[in-house]
Write a structure and sequence with these properties.
34% helix; 60s Ribosomal Protein L30, Chain: A
Length: 94
């Protein structure tokens, strides 16, 4: 798989930022993931591509054990806010 220089740069910055924010907090086992992202421009974008990049980087940073443990996933475009906001929680059966 080819990774563009821009993606490689984003990955490194994201990994460093996540490690600094999370510290020793890690989710063991199943989890819920919510991703809210602002469209970067008017071009057509595949929202599913956002999830894979975020899940992979969360696993690489050690925040989650394995991205296959995601039990509940929500992704949505929002009109304003941070460029991308990720919320994680342990999975709970209600």
């Amino acid at each position: 798989m080819y990774r563009s220089p821009e993606y490689t740069k984003w990955r490194k910055a994201a990994l460093d930022w996540i490690k600094a924010q999370v510290g020793s907090k890690h989710i063991k086992g199943k989890y819920t993931l919510l991703i809210e992202a602002v469209r970067p421009d008017r071009r057509h974008r595949d929202i599913g591509n956002i999830e894979k990049a975020i899940s992979d980087i969360l696993q690489e940073a050690g925040v989650i054990e394995n991205d296959c443990l995601c039990e509940d996933l929500h992704i949505r475009w929002v009109s304003e806010g941070p460029e991308c906001q990720v919320t994680l929680d342990t999975y709970k059966i209600i």
